[in-house]
Write a structure and sequence with these properties.
The complex is a heterodimer of chains A (about 350) and B (about 550). Chain A has 14 helices and two strands. Chain A has a two-stranded antiparallel sheet with strand order 1-2. Chain A has a domain of about 230 residues: MetI-like fold, CATH 1.10.3720.10. Helix content of chain A is about 70%, strand content about 0%. Chain B has 17 helices and 21 strands. Chain B is globular, with a radius of gyration of 25 Å. At the A-B interface, helix 2, helix 6, helix 11 and helix 12 of A face helix 1, helix 4, strand 10, helix 7 and helix 14 of B.
Chain lengths: ~350, ~550
């Protein structure tokens, strides 16, 4: 088992190098660099100053050399700092000589995105398992059809549009929920508990919108898995033993039906750090999606590479966790690994 | 991860349809109609689409940064309401008889918001900083023209230029003076100060929640005197529809709006017009159709003129801006002295366009397209992802098709646009914008020497008389003589038609009626120029008990 783990982790290194190399080159295929952003299209800005900026950032060197420089820093876990004029560190905070701390871009954006996505995943999986099981058990009845219709509407409805309608309804018309942002203006003066409530209130709509589109896929997955299991001999056996239907479904069938979900959970780990640009823009949430999107438009290479690197590390770890989870849940796989 | 470019216009339209059909909701009934006298205090909340990057303006390039930094820092002089130079840090300035030396006399007793004195040393420090090659500023070149700068005493700052340089005062009006005592040992490119600045103007930084909001508070030591409104909070709300909802819900006081909201949404919503006023002012930029003047057929002035006649600017202003803009005939703000009022835009005249093209040798072929020597007159309009520009291109395409020109449109992301087309010069026609700068100097855009890659005369315009006028205008510090030079320049430029001036859109704002003291109609400098003088009467303030 341990040799298997070590082998898997060692394999990640060449994978990561490959991924970063490809990302780096693709990123450089897009025309332009930090000096060609819209703000620099100002007749008062001279070409010499842009050229100097390119030299400072080594953008005048061949891509291979730039990759080498980047790799050299990254193996020391130095993600560098943004090319943007604020020059903030990409990953983690740094202290200057006076002891002032400037926080990392990912450090600030990641917790927000993680929070929303974790809520989202828990909600998606819980509701999907319930809905999926229900549709499988009540196969082809109106319940099944209504659930399918609902999850597909949720999948198909444009998120930004629904978001705006809900913002209008809950925020402007009824003032139940805040419209956008993460905190109220008087956040600092609230008690700890009220601060938590304030944050949660701000998260209700973003989490709802981001969960809605995820329901369709997973609930249908559960439904199909469940149907397949329900037709198998051991279920017939369980029923013929005289077990009541609840026991058959929840203990015998469901356990087997959600087994494949482990892979999906594993694969959604990298998704945890990715935010949606649309939702984040509408709800004014400074998360990872907006950070990545803005850096791509600005050609802020250190930030783009930072996010991609962390994303790929998490994807690889997610795969590993999924495999281990399988081994834990399924004796057949476990035996295969130990062999 | 999903990285879809968000379509603002689509959701604005959907939202408008939805909002127009919605019923009123209850609003408290503050008396907006009353007359109020000025009082101190209160809090103004506005919205911005992007977060400022760096409050040291010479290093930041984004508009959010300059908007916030402008509340914190001062320059030697400023533009007043009528866009004339007025004292700020300097109480007066003299120009030597050879017009090469400017002496600024700095007001006495000025302080930074931390209490330290603001003197000519700080001005000197700032000049050294902006001209230092290690400073990552794109704006250094203007200040490098200064041959010698001296500070004879704490209240005098003198600069001597190698050559007479007419835009000099404009450059000093846009350079924020920075505190030497806080920055002398700092790396200006990467300093904590850039997000925790100490300035001298109306406001000082109170609190900056990254990605969410920047809060400013009135600076009691402000060298301009105290602003009426105590707290100025700028919330980062990237989506304009969300901004609109926040404005509707009374959570923000102020936002920029688009022509649809100005003309269609607000007039239909009595509940909004009751509490929100709309303002329009001359905008700061114009949109143009620029020809690749080096490339056939645009190297023939008759073709450029024909296209200018064939485009109906009024129709574009009506269609794209819903009438909220003005046609232009020079690259200067209408109503300012640099704008030559005698010039008139090319009127829409289809027949004149056709006869000019026939003169060049074009005739209609069997398919109805204009053709010369077997080659159809066709070209591509390039523009960046900007809804108004895309719509404009479509209207132009239709008008030009009417006279037999085959136009295609291509919309490209900004960085690709610059690198693949502008820098290489491989384009036919672009649809872009320039700002309407306050100084009339247009050397970088129209002088024939400015055509290198990365320079701004990418349209390849060359005219000896224009070159001479631009050189002369740069060296003439007498405003009346200067005015004449630029009027002549605009006349030639219009006649040469290297670009078609399409429109200068109005800047549109929606501001809650609790905010008082806004000048209407807006002076040439715009409605925001006296924002320090705005006030919020106590009875109209939001419930602010929990905040202070």
């Amino acid at each position: 088992m341990i040799t298997y783990l070590i082998k898997r982790i060692m394999w990640m290194i060449p994978m990561l190098i490959g991924i970063s190399l490809i990302s780096f080159f693709i990123m450089h295929l897009a025309p332009g660099d930090i000096t060609s952003t819209e703000a620099s299209f100002n007749p008062k800005a001279s070409e010499e100053s842009r050229q100097r900026l390119r030299e400072t950032y080594n953008l005048d060197k061949p891509v291979m050399v730039q990759y080498g420089l980047w790799l050299k820093r990254i193996v020391q876990l130095d993600f560098g700092s943004s090319f943007a004029s604020h020059q903030r560190p990409v990953l983690w905070q740094v202290k200057d000589k006076n002891g002032n701390i400037s926080k990392g871009l990912i450090q600030e954006a990641l917790p927000i995105t993680l929070l929303i996505n974790l809520f989202g995943i828990v909600i998606i999986f819980t509701i999907s398992i319930i809905l999926g099981t229900l549709s499988a058990v009540k196969k082809n009845t109106w319940v099944d059809k209504a659930i399918t219709l609902f999850v597909f509407i949720g999948f198909a409805i444009p998120g930004f549009w629904l978001a705006l309608l809900l913002m209008y309804w809950t925020g402007v018309n009824h003032q139940w929920l805040p419209i956008s942002g993460l905190h109220s203006l008087n956040y600092q003066n609230l008690s700890m508990f009220s601060q938590l409530i304030d944050l949660l209130k701000h998260l209700v709509l973003p989490v709802f919108i981001s969960s809605l589109s995820g329901l369709a896929g997973i609930s249908l997955y559960v439904r199909n898995g469940m149907l397949e299991i329900l037709n198998q001999d051991f279920i017939t056996t369980a029923r013929s033993k005289g077990l009541n239907e609840k026991k058959v479904i929840f203990i015998h069938a469901l356990k087997n039906a959600i087994l494949p979900l482990i892979t999906i959970v594993g694969l959604s780990i990298p998704g945890l750090i990715g935010g949606s640009v649309i939702a984040e823009s509408i709800f004014s949430i400074p998360g990872m999606g907006k950070l990545f999107y803005d850096s791509v438009l600005m050609r802020d290479f250190p930030v783009i590479m930072g996010i991609l690197t962390i994303g790929s590390v998490l994807t690889l770890i997610g795969n590993l966790i999924a495999d281990l989870g399988y081994a834990w849940a399924d004796p057949r796989v476990r035996k295969g690994i130990i062999k | 991860m999903v990285y879809t470019k968000f379509k603002f216009s689509l959701n604005t339209i959907l939202l408008c349809i939805f909002l127009v059909s919605c019923t009123d909701n209850k609003v408290g009934a503050p008396n907006y109609a009353g007359n109020y006298s000025k009082e101190d205090g209160g809090r103004l909340i506005n919205a911005m689409t992007g977060e400022p990057s760096n409050l040291i303006a010479m290093i930041a390039g984004d508009s959010a940064s300059s908007a916030i930094a402008g509340n914190i820092f001062n320059s030697l002089l400023k533009y007043n309401e009528q866009l004339n130079y007025a004292p700020e840090i300097a109480e007066s300035w003299d120009i030597s008889s050879d017009q090469k030396t400017i002496t600024f006399r700095i007001k006495k007793g000025l302080t930074w918001s931390d209490g330290s004195p603001l003197t000519s040393k700080d001005v000197m420090f700032t000049w050294k900083l902006v001209t230092n090659p290690n400073t990552r500023t794109p704006y250094g070149s203007d200040y490098q023209l200064v041959k010698k700068a001296t500070t004879p005493d704490a209240h005098t700052f003198t600069v001597t230029y190698e050559e007479r340089y007419a835009p000099a005062l404009d450059t000093w009006a846009s350079l924020h003076i920075l505190p030497e005592h806080l920055l002398k040992n700092e790396d200006i490119n990467n300093t904590y100060f850039s997000r925790n600045p100490i300035g001298s103007s109306y406001y000082m930084l109170d609190d900056w929640k990254s990605g969410q909001q920047v809060a400013l508070k009135a600076n009691p030591l402000s060298i301009n005197g105290k602003a009426n409104i105590n707290n100025l909070i700028s919330r980062v709300i990237p989506d304009t529809s969300s901004q609109f909802l926040e404005l509707t819900a009374d959570n923000i006081d102020l936002m920029s709006i688009n022509p649809i909201q100005y003309q269609r949404v607000f007039p239909n919503r009595a509940d909004l017009t009751k509490k929100i006023s709309l303002y329009k002012e001359m905008g700061n930029g114009y949109t143009y159709l620029g020809f690749n003047n080096k490339k056939a057929p645009f190297n023939d002035v008759r073709v450029r003129k024909a296209l200018n006649y064939a485009i109906d600017k009024d129709e574009i202003i009506k269609g794209v801006l819903l009438g909220l803009g003005e046609p232009l005939s020079s690259p200067y703000k209408p109503g300012t002295r640099w704008n030559n009022a005698e010039l008139k835009p090319y009127p829409y005249n289809k027949n004149k366009a056709i006869s000019l093209l026939q003169e060049v040798g074009y005739h209609k072929n069997d398919n109805g397209f204009l053709e010369k020597n077997g080659r159809v007159l066709k070209f591509e309009i390039l523009t960046n992802q900007n809804k108004q520009r895309e719509m404009t291109a479509v209207i132009i395409q239709r008008r030009l098709k009417e006279i037999g020109i085959d136009v295609s449109i291509r919309v490209i992301e900004w960085a690709s646009f610059i690198n693949q087309f502008i820098k290489t010069g491989e384009f036919d026609v672009v649809l872009l914008g320039w700002s309407l700068s306050l100084d009339p100097d247009q050397y970088n855009i129209w002088h024939s020497s400015q055509q290198g890659p990365g320079q701004f005369n990418f349209l390849g315009y060359e005219n000896k008389s224009v070159d001479r006028l631009l050189e002369k205008g740069r060296m003439e510090l007498d405003v009346n003589k200067r005015e004449k030079i630029y009027h002549e320049f605009s006349t030639i430029l219009l006649d040469d038609s290297p670009i078609v001036y399409l429109y200068a859109g109005y800047g549109l704002s929606a501001i809650n009626k609790r905010v008082r003291g806004i000048k209407e109609p807006s002076p040439p400098a715009g409605i925001y120029h006296n924002s320090h003088d705005w006030f919020i009467p106590k009875t109209l303030r939001r419930n602010e008990i929990s905040d202070n």
